[in-house]
Amino acid sequence: MVEPAANHLLVASKELAAGVHELKIDGSLDWSTYARVEAAVTEIFRKGVFRIVINLKDTKYISSAGFGCFISALDTAMRNGGDLIFSGVPKEIHEVFVILGLAKILRFADDAKQAEALLRAK
Predict the structure, then answer these.
(1) How many angstroms separate the Cα of 120 from the Cα of each of 89, 98, 114?
(2) 84 near 52, Cβ under 8 Å?
(3) Is there a contact between 47 and 18 (Cβ–Cβ < 8 Å)?
(4) What is the mean pLDDT of the chain?
(5) Which of 31, 36, 80, 89 is the 20 to 30 A CA-CA neighbour of 2?
(6) Which H or E run includes 112?
(7) How far is 74 from 50, CA to CA, in rounded Å?
(8) pLDDT in tens, 5-48
(9) For residue 55, how far is the Cα from the chain centroid?
(10) Residue 47 phi, psi dihedral angles, 5° rounding
(11) How many domains are contained in the chain?
(12) Residue 37 falls within a domain, yes or no?
């Protein structure tokens, strides 16, 4: 997988439903950009929200630092009765989740609407 232009990362957060937020990641998530995602997740947690849809539809690349950020967020969410669900994951990135063994512990949905429904049901 070729890494796109460095430092291109847009992170947006919005409330999908009471107690459920979406974090949309657009671009390359690597060692130079993961702190932006970590800060956005921390801000959601500060609001007392621990059920998060991680929308990767427009994500081009995730490095080990990015995957580590997600595992840390999952741990915090679960300790607080929440969960993370990944939506719109591109095939190439999903394959990396599988190779790393993360597909066994993470949950995935086709889109944000399906992910939101899974989180509300929890």
Answers:
(1) 20, 25, 10
(2) yes
(3) no
(4) 91
(5) 36
(6) helix 112-121
(7) 9
(8) 456 899 999 999 899 999 999 999 999 999 999 999 999 999 99
(9) 6
(10) -80, 0
(11) 1
(12) yes
